[in-house]
Design a protein that fits this description.
Pfam families: Ras (PF00071). Keywords: GTP-binding, Nucleotide-binding. One of its GO terms (molecular function) is GTPase activity. This protein is an alpha/beta fold. The chain has a single domain, classed as P-loop containing nucleotide triphosphate hydrolases (Rossmann fold, 3-Layer(aba) Sandwich), CATH 3.40.50. It is about 30% helix and about 25% strand. The chain has helices at about 15-25, 90-105, 125-135, 150-165, and strands at about 1-10, 40-45, 50-60, 80-85, 110-115, 140. It has a six-stranded mixed beta sheet with strand order 2-3-1-4-5-6, sandwiched between helices. A hairpin with a 2-residue loop joins strand 2 (about 40-45) and strand 3 (about 50-60). The chain is globular and about 40 Å long. It starts with a strand and ends with a helix.
């Protein structure tokens, strides 16, 4: 069986833990739980006639007090860069994090995940900004950990990108 390490990266409270919980356990909790350090989960998915064992590293969110520990990224085959659509600054942080990750582990496949799609009426990120990111060649997937929209698609798409490398 093929195993691939995937990291969840983004600002604090973007929904990284909720996305993993939705994928692995098919659950969503309204309670906010701060990730301390890293939480590791596993999920086996089927892609291109292969069973892929995903080792999901849910890394604590970056904020002004805590910077991402780059050593957590070692051995990563790819990552989900998670943005909270209701907080514009998380998109700016995602751009900074993507640069730091690339400087640390080189170019590996990633997906920009625009989370909290279930509450688009509260979004601060404009459609034109998403289009600009897509024009840069980034893959963008809109998700909702709460409703499950796009969650499986995000992990499947990233896994396909990893296998195609």
């Amino acid at each position: 069986m093929i195993q691939k390490k995937i990291c969840m990266i983004g600002a604090f409270a973007t929904g990284k833990t909720s996305l993993v919980a939705r994928l692995v356990h098919s659950i969503f909790s309204e309670k906010y739980h701060t990730t301390v350090g890293v939480k590791i989960d596993k999920k086996t998915i089927d892609i291109q006639d292969n069973k892929i064992n995903l080792i999901l590293w849910d890394i604590y969110g970056e904020d002004e007090f805590q910077k991402l520990q780059m050593s957590y990224l070692r051995g990563s085959a790819g990552y989900l860069l998670v943005v909270d659509g209701t907080r514009h600054n998380t998109l700016e942080q995602a751009f900074d994090l993507q640069t730091k990750v690339e400087d640390t582990i080189g170019q590996v496949p990633f997906i920009l995940v625009m989370n909290k799609w279930d509450i688009t009426d509260e979004w601060e990120i404009e459609p034109a900004e998403i289009d600009d990111v897509i024009q840069k060649g980034w893959t963008v997937i809109k998700t909702s950990a709460k409703s499950g929209i796009g969650v499986e698609e995000a992990f499947q798409t990233l896994t396909k990108k990893i296998l195609d490398c």
